[in-house]
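My main concern about presentation is that the manuscript never shows what a single data entry looks like. In essence, backbone conformation is discretised, so a fold becomes a row of integers matching the chain in length. An entry of this sort, consisting of the sequence and the corresponding backbone structure tokens, reads as follows:
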Amino acid sequence: MPAKTVSIKDFRRMKESGTPIVALTAYEALFASIMDEAGVDLILVGDSLANVFQGRPTTIPVTLDQMIYHGEIVARSVSHAFVIVDLPFLSFQVNADDAVRNAGEVMKRTLCSGVKLEGGVAVAGTVRRLVDTGIPVLGHVGLTPQSVHVFGGFALRGRDDRQKVIDDAVAVQDAGAFAVVLEKIPKDLAAEITKKLSIPTIGIGAGPDCDGQILVTPDMLGLFTQYKPAFVRRYAELAGESSNGIRRFIEDVRSRNFPSDSESYQ
């Protein structure tokens, strides 16, 4: 187990020293504790739980109570990583007062380290209100999944709207965010933004020049197999291994090879 809990100051030092930030998503205690023990710097309780946990096509249906439920489980399961909880759709977009109230509920009920919200220029005022209230904010620009219907899908951002992505990232930084996620943008644009900003950038489908990288854990471990984004590298194939184990269990039960005498009480 790593000796100390990661703080915002550590992320700043990591950017300055060129040490990449390592981030993954978690939604429950088992994987949260495993990745914390391994030394992951930042754990995101992402609204991606809609896709990989609830089996939904978008993140839009996730509720604030669901994020709090999963966030509380993850936050109490780790002692090293900096835990961030996503603010779900319509929990922060209506007005800054709602955002402060909802983010405050997340912080109080989960004991997480901060929140993440999607958007740039349009939400800069809300980011500022949250930070002024004492809530650390991780920004998220580029492809923002909560806006999937506006974009017309999950296509690459930043080719036709390059300056908008830059402006969004700068706005989030100037509003007080401690770092910003860059999702699914050209790698040269991500490199330009990373060089321009004084806060760390954490890439997901944004190339190798960001200050850190994040992946959705079930994607990275090969547990989620419905689709595989081009930017995902699979470090395991746990869906196949799990399926094989379950089939062996079925065979052993049907053939009465399980349980054996040593697996039974006398």
The CA atoms of residues 77 and 123 lie 31 Å apart. DSSP finds eleven helices and eight strands in the chain.
